# Entry
Amino acid sequence: MKNILYIDCDGVILDTIETAFTMMKENNIDITNKYLVDYFFRNINWNYLINNSMIINNAIEKIKILKNNNIYQDVVILTKLSGNYDEERLKRDTFFKLLPNIKVITLPRDYNKALVVPSINNILIDDEDKNIASWNNYGGIGIKFTKDIIDLDNNIINDLNDIENTSKVKMLRKTSK
# Structure
């Protein structure tokens, strides 16, 4: 049985989070104030943010390889939205140009990814601990993504090439034979 691979966008594919927080600091926005941060993300120029955010660890090329290597039933970008009206359109347009064969699913930021798409035995690559924990709680295989750290035994990767080398995915492959 092949699994679906879901990949988060912000913090996994595009470094929009670091770019946004740099912009907030430059504009003297108190990043500890949740309301100011929410307001910033709802009103940010997403075109500028996306175009000025680095692609993390060559993620676009690696997603193309993951899609073409036929290990997964499907490879899908699963991303939450801040509430900005332009964000969804711009993310979809960006990925349509960069990854035309990859589906993009967008969710309001308060939605639980594991309750919206099938999580059981499917894989989620995400940079947020709460998304990983929820995915695991609903029978999925959650893999934590960081830009720097790698710990395959604890399912933490910094390169999309390492998904199959994590302990959870290895266990899944062993039990599904």
Notes: The helical segments are 16-26, 34-43, 46-51, 59-68, 85-98, 113-116, 129-137, 167-175. The chain has a mean pLDDT of 94. Residues 113 and 131 are 7 Å apart (CA to CA). Strands lie at 4-7, 74-81, 103-108, 123-126, 141-145, 156-157.
